[in-house]
Amino acid sequence: MTSKAEKGDITPPPALEAGGADELEIKTQPAATYADVPCDRNEEDFMTRNGLSLKSFQKRSYGQSIVELDRTMKKRHLQMISIGGSIGAGFFVGSGGALAKGGPATLLIDFAIIGIMMFNVVYALGELAVMYPVSGGFYTYSTRFIDPSWGFAMGWNYVFQWMVVLPLELTVCGLVVGYWDQHTSVAVWITVFLVAIVIINIFGTLGYAEEEFWASVLKLCAVVIFMIICLVLVVGGGPKDGRYATYQGAGTWYNPGAFRNGFRGFCGVFVTAAFSFSGTELVGLAAAEARNPVKSLPGAVKQVFWRITLFYILGLFFVGLLVRSDDPRLMGSGYVDVHASPFVLVGLYAGLRGFDHFMNVIILISVLSIGVSAVYGGSRCLTALAQQGYAPKIFTYVDRSGRPLPSVAVLLISGVLAYINLSADGEIVFNWLLSLSGLAALFTWGSICLAHIRFRKAWAHHGHTLDEIPFKAAFGVYGSWVGLVLCVLVLAASFFQGVAPAGKEGLNSAKGWFQDMLALPVVMAFWVVGYFWKRTGWLRTSEMDVDTGRREHDWDTINAYRERLAQMPAWKRIFHMCNHHHTAHDPHPSALAAAVRLTGRQPLGRRKHGLGEHHPRRAQRQRRRARKRDQPLAPPERRALLPVISSSHHPWERPLAHAERQARDQQRRAVEVDHGRGAVGEDVRVELLGEAEGHEGRTDEAGEVVGLLWRR
Questions:
Q1: Portions of the chain given CATH number 1.20.1740.10
Q2: Which of 193, 231, 331, 382 lies most in the core, judged by the most C-beta atoms within 10 Å?
Q3: How far apart are the first and last CA of the chain?
Q4: 710 pairs with which residues across the strands?
Q5: DSSP bridge partners of 683
Q6: Does residue 615 sit in helix, strand or coil?
Q7: Alpha helices, DSSP H only, in 13-74?
Q8: For the chain, how big is the Rg over CA atoms in Å?
C-alpha cells in the first residue's frame, strides 16, 4: 500500500511563530537541575575520569532512575577477553589432576564436550546481547524469557560464584610464588596480590579491560610457545640430559594407557573442565560496557572457537603426550597445587633450564587476571541485581568514574576468605566454599541456552522473522538445545561422580557427595526465595516482551549488505563472515554507495556522523559522492522508497524501554522524506515518525536542512 509520504500528498505543517503558545510553553519550562544533566565521561578531567581524585568517588547522576556504567571498552578488549579471558588455574593447574583422574583421552574428550557446549552457549549469548545489550548481567535474560524467580537465582548464583573464585585465585597466587620462595608465608603474598587487584579496580572498567588485554596477550603467546616446544619434544628434539631426547610419539596413550578409572574417571574430569571454562561468558557481560557492542561483540564471539580449538584442545593434547597420567606429582593434585601443573612438569622433565620458571610467571599472571575478572563480573552482576530490585539499593551506587563502588567493595572483601585456607580447620571450610564454584557455571550456561530457545519461540509468536535478527547463533535453536542437553548431562555426570568418585573403591561418603553437589541445593534455595518474594512463575510465550530495550537497526542497509554477501562464492563468503563483522551500525560501504547512486547524495544521518577525513578510502568515497551530487537526481517515486540511515539512535546509547523509545520517536527522531537536494532557501518537507506530526526547514548552500522547528 502506497503511503502519503510516497505520493507526496503530505501538506507541510506550519512553522512555529515567534511569541506563540508553543514558544511560550518552551520558555516557561522549569530549569534543569544538576540531577537532570547527564554526566558525560568525556567532560570530566583526567584524574576524575580515571578514578584518581576524591571527586571521582562522588555519585554519578544521569537524570534517570538507572545509572549506567561507562562504555569505554574497545573492540580489541572484547577480542582478547573472548580468546584468553578465562585461561587460568583450571587450565594450567587443574588439568594436572584431571589427567591423573581420567587419562589423556578422557581429558581431551571431556574438554572437547565442554568446548562444544561453550561454543553454542557463547553464540546464544551473543545473539541475545546484540538484541538486548543489558548493562550489568545477562541473568536478566532468564528473568525475561524463563522465570523472574529463576533469574533471581541465577543472578545471585553468579555473584556467589565469583565471590568464591577470588579467594581461590589469591591462594593459588601465593602458592605460585612459593615455587621460588618457600620461607615466606603464603598470607604475605595473598595480601600483596589482593592489594594489586584493588589498585587495578581503582581504574574501573578501563583498568580491567587493559589488564585483561595484555594478560591475554601474554597467556596466548605462552601457550603458543609451549605447543611449539612440545612439538619438538614429542619428536625427540629435547636436550640429551632430559626425558624427551628420543622420539615420544603417543607412548603415554599405551603406557600407562589412554583412560584411567573407567567411567568414573570420565565423569570426574567434567567438573575440572567446567571450572576451566568458567569466565567465558564474561564477553557478554563486558559487551554492555563496550563503545559499540553491536559492532564488536559478534567478532569477539566468533573468536571463542579458536580459543577452544587451538589453546584448550591442542594444548592439552600435547600435555597428554608428554606427561604420564600415573605421574606421582599429579596424584591428589587439585586446583591449588602449582607444583603439579603439567605445563611446569614438561619443562622440568625436558631439562629446559628456566622454562618451568617462565611457565610459573605465566600461571601467576593468568591467575591474577582471573582474580580481577572475578571482581569485575561479580560487581557488575550485583549492581544489575540491585537495579532490578533483587539486591539492596545501595549497590546501585556508581561514582563519577563509572565504578560501582559498593559492589566492588563486597567482592574485594570476599577475597579475605583466602586466609581461611591457611589453617587446618580453615581448609575444610575453604573446600566447602570451593565446591560452590565447581558446578555454579553449569546453571548459568544452561540458563543462557534455555533463554535463547524461549526467546526464539517468543520472537516467532509475536510475528517476527529470523531476518530481523542482526546476529544469529551459528546453529540457531538447535545449537542451544545441544548446549542445554550437554549442561544437563555434565550435571548428571557430576552427580554420579559425587556418588562414586574416581580413584576410590565403593561409594562416596555423604559428606563427600554434599561437598561435590553443594551448588545444586544453593541454586534451588535461591529459586525458592525468589519465588516467594516475587510471586512469579514460568512465563508463557504470550507473556514475554521482545520489544522493550531492543536495539534499533537500519534493516535496509543490512539487507543490502546481505544481498551483496549472497552473491559471493562460498569460500569467499565464509572468509568474509569470519573476518568482517559488519552490523547494523557498521554497514558495508557498498550499501551506502547504493543509496548514493540512487539519490545523488549521502543520507543525512550518515553525513551527520561523518566518515572520517583521515582514512584514504573514506576520503575517496567522499570525493566520489561529491561528484555524484552534480548528476541528475532519481525520480521522486524512487527517492521516496530509499532506505533511511537515521542518526537518532547512536550505537552507544542506552537501550530504551518501549515507552521511552516511542516517546523519543514522537519528539525527536525525524526522517527526511524528500532526499533531493533543493536550491538555496527551498522548503524541505520532513515527516516525524509519530502520529501526524512534523516539522519543516530550509536548505542551505550545501543542501543541508537547517532551521528545523519542532511542532508540538
A1: 68-539
A2: 382
A3: 28
A4: 695
A5: 698
A6: coil
A7: 21-27, 46-49
A8: 29
Q: What is the pLDDT of residues 83-113, one digit of tens each?
A: 776 787 778 888 888 888 888 999 999 999 9
Asked if CATH classification 1.10.1060.10 holds for the domain at 68-539, the reply, yes or no, is: no
Distance CA 80, CA 17 (A): 56
pLDDT for 496-540, tens place per residue? 887 877 766 666 666 777 777 788 888 888 899 888 887 777 888
- H helices of 500-603, in order, are 510-516, 519-534, 555-566, 570-579, 589-599
Measured distance CA(376)–CA(465) in Å, rounded: 36
Helix (H) or strand (E) holding 569: none
Give the span between the Cα atoms of 610 and 618, in whole angstroms. Answer: 10
Of 321, 388, 331, whose CA–CA distance to 141 is shortest? 388
Pairwise CA distance, residues 633 & 554, whole Å = 23
Gap between the Cα atoms of 645 and 164, Å rounded: 47
**DSSP state, residue 48:** H
Q: CB of 288 within 8 A of CB of 100?
A: no
Note whether 73 and 209 are within 8 A (CB). Answer: yes
3-state secondary structure 686-699: EEECCCCCEEEEEE
Rounded Cα gap, residues 289 and 168, in angstroms: 27
d(CA 210, CA 81): 10
CA-based angle 358:361:365, to the nearest 5?
145
CA torsion sign for 607, 613, 618, 623 is positive
Query: Are the C-beta atoms of 676 and 639 separated by less than 8 Å?
Result: yes
Give tens-digit pLDDT for 315-341: 899 999 998 888 888 765 555 555 678
For 452, which DSSP code? H
DSSP per residue over 339-386, as a string?
GG-HHHHHHHHHT-TTHHHHHHHHHHHHHHHHHHHHHHHHHHHHHHHH
For 181, the grid coordinates are: 620462595
C-alpha 281 chain-centroid distance: 6
Q: Kindly report the average pLDDT of the chain as a whole number.
A: 71
Closest alpha carbon to 334 in 441, 193, 438: 438
Q: Is residue 671 helix, strand or coil?
A: strand
Strand order across the beta sheet in which 705-710 lies: 670-672, 683-688, 694-699, 705-710
Instruction: Select from 412, 386, 383, 391 the least CA-distant residue to 163.
Output: 412
Q: Which amino acid is residue 630, in one-letter code?
A: D
Cell digits of residue 30 = 522549569
CA distance 415 to 430: 12
State which amino acid sits at residue 617: R
Q: What are phi and psi of 70, to 5 degrees?
A: -75, 150
